[in-house]
Design a protein that fits this description.
The complex is a heterodimer of chains A (311) and B (510).
Chain A lengths: L8 H7 L21 H8 L12 H9 L19 H4 L2 H9 L1 H5 L3 H9 L12 H14 L18 H12 L36 H15 L4 H9 L4 H17 L8 H22 L7 H9 L7
Helix pairs in contact in A: 3-8, 5-8, 9-12, 10-12
Chain B lengths: L2 E10 L8 H10 L12 E5 L11 H4 L3 E4 L2 E4 L4 H7 L9 H4 L3 E3 L3 H4 L11 E3 L36 H7 L8 E5 L8 H5 L5 E3 L6 E3 L9 H5 L5 E4 L4 E4 L4 H4 L6 H4 L6 E9 L3 H5 L6 H8 E2 L4 H9 L4 H8 L2 H8 L4 E2 L10 E4 L7 E2 L5 E2 L30 H8 L4 H22 L5 H10 L4 H13 L2 H4 L7 H6 L24
Parallel strand pairs in B: 1-15
Antiparallel strand pairs in B: 1-12, 2-7, 3-4, 5-6, 8-9, 10-11, 12-13, 14-15, 16-17
Helix pairs in contact in B: 16-17, 17-18, 17-19
Classes of the chains: A mainly alpha (311), B alpha+beta (510).
């Protein structure tokens, strides 16, 4: 009967005081060791944020839907660089792939090769209309030859003030609400040294070094229009504002400077959870273990001890 | 008026000789199975005593029945907080030791033992572990006041009895006891049904028999806790609870339940009664002292034309109404007011009623001990009997304290018990006047009037108590099972089958 008590544990675990996450950033040297060269270059630039020209609807759509994974001529990110893609594939194939990647990823040999090349990261179905996918293919063909503004109005994170970074920290930890009501990042992500509840969520990636991984622009697109399956759904109805994305980038930029390389320490949660459960079980056993008592045997014992009546 | 039919029972305790034939009949038919060895759907216990399982009446421990909380009735066993605390580890259950560890004997040793200096013996073997065991208790361990310093003194009903009367009860050579046969009460407001989280327990609409679906039971065992009579048992073999089914397969074929049929003392009466379901709430809301009378008011007169019309509107067939008009239960419970429910204070509205025992006919007589001269006593009295005014008042000096009987049968109200005992004493005296003649008929008739009865009624009570043949004691209504199952099944689907046994064997996890 006793093991059944395990059912009670999950809610208790949540409230148990666990310090799974040792804060490391405080002691870490502020050396930008892992920041790519391009970003350090902008970091050295003067403070005035560069104002880009207005976007066309197609460019805006690309920035929202594609930009977090793809560039046109700026290198491979999560997915392939799309420069001159029209020379590699037929137009019909491109339109179909943009509209419903799932239709091709499993069956088409070219698509399967791409999937293998990009380590099995599947492009999600973006829910585009026929017109939109045509527009995007047109855009990619155009941008392969002439300059485009695919990043939108962009302010580099390096220009942020300490105040911006503090705002970003509050947004990340959920101490200040997102304007559109989106969930705080810490529900699913961790940034080491940010000292959130349990060190942060474990559902999604550790974001300590995300600035180095995605770069400033990639991070901006990822925040405004995430292409990651779950995040895409969650933030579709509660999108981040440009100012919030900026503050978060500023916070993540700083985290990248101060953080150590990501290290898998999820075992610490399991260990603390295990010890915690054991402690709770032992406690329950002491408090509740002897509740089921017989009636008849105490009666006979009472008689042997010379006390006859119940009362 | 919302008329329902309910099979109902009366046990006449004066007639019970404590032979346990009923228990054996039930055991042989229903609980002679693996996992059911310890169960006694019918058991007979000695009162005063702790019964089976030990001290089942102690609801401080077992949390059975309903609790009146302001205007609301709450099941003592469950509730949001209590349920959460006990759902995986229920401490309000009898342990197997509180029932008893079922045992058999190694009879084969009597034949197989090697030759030796001593006679071979059959040792007790546990039917649970299969190993040799020391017998410490049985299903009727305190029978005839056996072990009374342990068991009888701890009868929870003695809490209402004064210390003097309590010690007088256990005076050597003047001990007093009676037998209390118990089966499931098939209550109108059963706590076991209310407490079941799986919906496995239900009350059959057409006759009110409370049953437990072996297919839906999920072994929560809240029914075991919730039943204040501890008449639901858990089968450790199948992982399902079980209870008395009032031998419904026998009833459906027109036979009395096995425990009724086999009763040597012919103490049991069976019949259907009609009650008004609209009055249930009002009845349940009654004060504890008024519960017995409120429950009687809920039962309808089956000869009242209005009731008959309402019963027909409710779909009760003419032959069932005719059966209710002949029901001996209606006479005992409502017409004569002699039969009382057991522990009505749990507000389950039990439909098994008991005629409280008049025997032993002895009254406490101050310093001199006990007076056995009242009504047919076996004392060494000589000369004419004193049946002057105040004779019936001897009931108040009754050998078994009235508070004790009221705790059992009156929900604490001595009045209803006193009424039943006085009437019985008057009828007994009247019959003595008729057959023996040492009491004058005039005196006897006066006593009948004092006890709120008449010569005709006294004759009827006498007839049903002492003369009535089986057909008058067991008025089994036509069960009309074919109509009841029409709602769920094709009535002819099982034509040609025996209709017995499991459709699907009860198994753990199914």
């Amino acid at each position: 009967m006793r093991p059944a008590l395990l059912w009670i544990l999950p809610p208790l675990l949540l409230s148990a005081p666990l310090s799974a996450q040792a804060p490391t950033s405080a002691a870490a040297p502020a050396a930008p060791s892992t920041v790519p060269a391009a970003t350090t270059a902008t970091a050295a630039a003067p403070a005035a944020p560069p104002q880009a020209q207005e976007q066309s609807p197609a460019e805006d759509l690309f920035a929202r839907k594609c930009g977090s994974c793809h560039t046109v001529g700026k290198g491979v990110r999560v997915g392939p660089d799309l420069k001159d893609v029209a020379k590699r594939r037929s137009r019909a194939w491109l339109e179909l792939f943009v509209k419903t990647p799932s239709a091709l990823l499993d069956s088409d040999p070219d698509a399967r090769n791409l999937l293998a090349e990009f380590k099995g990261v599947r492009m999600p179905d973006l829910g585009l209309s026929d017109a939109e996918s045509r527009m995007l293919v047109d855009l990619v063909i155009r941008c392969s030859t002439e300059p485009c503004n695919l990043a939108g109005r962009f302010v580099a994170a390096t220009t942020a003030t300490p105040r911006d970074r503090a705002v970003g920290r509050e947004l990340f930890l959920g101490l200040a609400p997102m304007k559109a009501g989106g969930a705080p990042c810490v529900s699913c992500h961790t940034v080491r040294g940010s000292k959130g509840l349990l060190g942060g969520g474990r559902l999604a990636k550790d974001l300590t070094n995300v600035f180095a991984r995605l770069g400033d622009e990639g991070l901006d697109t990822a925040l405004k229009s995430p292409a990651f399956p779950l995040m895409n759904k969650v933030y579709a109805v509660h999108p981040l504002e440009a100012s919030e994305a900026f503050a978060l980038r500023a916070f993540l930029y700083e985290a990248n400077l101060g953080g150590e390389p990501a290290r898998d320490d999820s075992w610490s949660v399991s260990l603390a959870g295990g010890i915690g459960s054991l402690a709770v079980l032992v406690g329950l056993n002491f408090a509740w273990g002897r509740r089921l008592r017989g009636v008849r045997q105490p009666l006979t014992r009472r008689r042997e001890n010379g006390k006859e009546h119940l009362s | 008026m919302d008329v329902r039919a309910q099979v109902s029972m009366v046990f006449h305790l004066d007639k019970c000789i404590g032979c346990h034939t009923c228990s054996i009949a039930c055991k042989n038919i229903w609980t002679d199975r693996k996992g059911a060895e310890y169960m006694w759907w019918n058991n007979v216990e000695t009162k005063p005593g702790t019964g089976f399982p030990t001290a089942w009446e102690d609801q401080e421990k077992y949390k059975g029945g309903w609790e009146k909380n302001g205007d609301k009735l709450e099941v003592r066993a469950v509730g949001k907080v209590r349920g959460a605390m006990t759902v995986f580890h229920n401490p309000n259950l009898p342990t197997i030791d509180d029932y008893y560890e079922p045992f058999t004997y190694s009879y084969q040793d009597l034949f197989d033992a090697k030759e030796g200096a001593d006679q071979p013996i059959a040792r007790p073997i546990s039917m649970i572990t299969g190993k040799e065991m020391e017998i410490e208790a049985g299903p009727n361990w305190d029978d005839d006041l056996g072990g009374s310093p342990v068991y009888a003194v701890n009868d929870p009903n003695l809490a209402h009895v004064s210390p003097e009367e309590r010690s007088a009860l256990f005076e050597v050579q003047k001990l007093v006891f009676f037998y209390l046969p118990r089966i499931c009460n098939h209550c109108v407001n059963p706590t076991c049904v209310a407490a079941c989280p799986s919906g496995a327990l239900y009350k059959r609409g057409e006759d009110g028999i409370v049953l437990l679906s072996q297919e839906r039971c999920r072994a929560w065992r809240f029914c075991v806790t919730a039943c204040p009579y501890k008449k639901v048992y858990f089968n450790w073999g199948t992982g399902k609870s079980e209870k008395c089914i009032l031998c419904y397969p026998r009833l459906e074929t027109g036979q009395a339940p096995a425990c009724f049929h086999s009763c040597v003392g012919r103490i049991r009466y069976f019949g259907i009664v009609l009650y008004d379901a609209e009055k249930i709430e009002e009845t349940l809301a009654a004060d504890e002292k008024d519960l017995v009378t409120a429950q009687r008011r809920m039962i309808l007169d089956p000869k009242d034309p209005e009731v008959i019309a309402a019963a027909k509107r409710a779909g009760i067939t003419d032959d069932v109404i005719a059966s209710a008009q002949k029901s001996p239960v209606y006479k005992w419970v409502v017409e004569w007011g002699l039969a009382l429910p057991l522990h009505a204070e749990h507000r389950t509205l039990p439909m098994l009623f008991y005629v409280p025992p008049l025997l032993p006919v002895m009254a406490a007589n101050g310093e001199q001990g006990y007076d056995t001269t009242i009504a047919g006593g076996s004392g060494d009295e000589k000369g004419p009997r004193d049946t002057t005014v105040g004779f019936l008042g001897a009931i108040d000096k009754y050998r078994l304290p009235l508070q004790y009987m009221a705790s059992l049968f009156g929900a604490g109200n001595e009045g209803v018990v006193r009424y039943a005992l006085r009437k019985q004493l008057a009828v007994r005296t009247y019959r003595r006047a008729v057959t023996v003649g040492d009491v004058s008929l005039d005196d006897a008739t006066r006593l009948l009037a004092e006890a709120d009865t008449t010569v005709e009624e006294a004759e009827a009570i006498y007839y049903l108590t002492s003369i009535a043949p089986a057909d008058d004691r067991f008025v089994i209504p036509p069960m009309h099972r074919e109509q009841a199952i029409e709602m769920l099944d094709e009535p002819l689907a099982a034509k040609g089958f025996a209709g017995m046994g499991f459709r699907k064997k009860p198994e753990r996890g199914s």
